[in-house]
Amino acid sequence: MRAVLEQDRSNLKNWARAYLLLGFEKAGLTKQDPEVQALLNDLAANVIPTANGNHWEDERVDTYAQSGPRTTALVLHAMAKMDPGHPLIEETTRWLVVALNTGVCRTGLEQAQAIAALSSFVEGTGERGASYSYSVRLEGDSVLSGILESQGAIEAESKKLSLTDLTLGKSNLLSLARDFTRAGRMYYTLNLRYVTPAQSVEALNRGFAVSHQYSSIGAPDTPTSSARVGDVVRVKLTVMLPADRNYVVVEDLLPAGLEPIDPNLKVVDPALKAQLEAERSAANRPEGLDYFAPWYRWYYNPWQHADMLDDRVRLTAESLPKGVYEFIYYARATTPGDFYVAPIHAEESYFPEVFGRSDSGRFTVQP
To answer: Is this prediction's pTM over 0.85?
Structure first.
């Protein structure tokens, strides 16, 4: 195992690093050994952190049934055995619990390794024997209090507060206290949801980079911010992922003067349908591979669903490998006026803190 680490350290995948750690643990090494420190450092350098969890991914290899959830489970198992106090453990546990309960762990192998890793973590913490009192205060006022028990069914306590309960322009102190004479761990999550005025929204990348571009169907490469009533506007959505994402939802709200054209409706011009289908078939064709079968009217499409609603287009996908994706749809200018363009919003359904949005803007529809 030392020879593997010395000769192939730079080529090791994250799951291989985890297996080596488990092997070194069985051989009696500790976290003070240089080999263990090197592997832990490499894993820390390759972690994919989010606000509510850490996970690991490896480049996909067709000959191995390895996946992001399996790799994350292996890393957690190895860290729990080799270094129970590692600072990445708790957030990795959080990610794996959510993945296990929301279908991100799809296969029996992924589920089994997740359960084994979580069992190893819980064995070291002893939290299944917890029983303690706690209190939560905001600026000295009680928000939550009670007793948390880990026997039987585990239940969480929660409280929703309005933003008006916070004092604008100053730091607001939220304090958590518990009885440390009793065993067990205390976990908490703070989620903040707010609305920003449309005219001042700026692009933000928290795991997704998204953008949209309006143009006329006659000049698709020339961006525009205006159209006349009755014109068809071409909309190109671009979604960039730096890592694999699961249960992705992308929503593009149209300015109020536009309505999306649903190509499934029989009232849509057949020539317009054919033009849109040709554009979509070319948008995401993988380099070197031909996923286009015109005789079946089928082509590669990473999105399981594309819903054309009255005021927006919603794209959903169970799994998206890292990369850049484009989606093209048409909209018709129906109402004259000067309208705000709301940002695109993309997120992972079960990890909403992994999200991205585009800038806001303006679009004019002329009579």
So the answer is: no
One domain, residues 120 and 147: no
Residue 221 CA to residue 205 CA, distance in Å, equals 24
Evaluate whether residue 141 is within a structural domain: yes
136, β-bridge pairs: 144, 176
* Domain region containing 6: 2-125
Domain shared by 57 and 118, yes or no: yes
Whether 210 and 347 share a structural domain:
yes
Same domain, 138 and 120: no
- Tally of CB atoms within 10 A around 118: 18
Number of domains in the chain: 3
How far apart (Å, rounded) are the C-alpha atoms in residues 198 and 361?
8
Same domain, 224 and 333: yes
Q: What span, in angstroms and rounded, lies between the C-alpha atoms of 365 and 231?
A: 9
- Parallel, antiparallel, or unpaired for β 361-366 and 226-228? parallel
What CA–CA distance (Å, rounded) separates 75 from 69? 10
The pLDDT tens digits for 111-133 are 999 999 999 898 877 777 788 89
Of 321, 317, 356, 303, the residue nearest 58 (C-alpha): 321
Asked if 206 and 341 sit in the same domain, the reply is yes
Domain at 265, CATH number: 2.60.40.690
Question: Residue 262, SS3?
Answer: coil
Query: What is the token pair recorded at 151?
Result: 């026997």
Mean pLDDT of 52-76: 82
Question: Does 195 reside within a domain?
Answer: no
What CATH number is given to the structural domain containing 59? Answer: 1.50.10.20
Residue 220 has, within 13 A of its CA and on its CB side, a CA count of 13
Q: 162 and 311, same structural domain?
A: no
Q: Tell me which residue of 98, 360, 358 sits closest to 250, measured CA to CA.
A: 358
Burial of 120 per CB tally in 10 Å (0-12, 13-18, 19+): middle
Spatial separation of the C-alpha atoms in residues 314 and 346, rounded to whole Å: 10
Q: What is the C-alpha to C-alpha distance for residues 78 and 73, in angstroms, rounded to an integer?
A: 9
Most confident of the following: 62-71, 94-103, 180-189, 215-224? 215-224
The tokens describing 32, both together, are: 């003070």
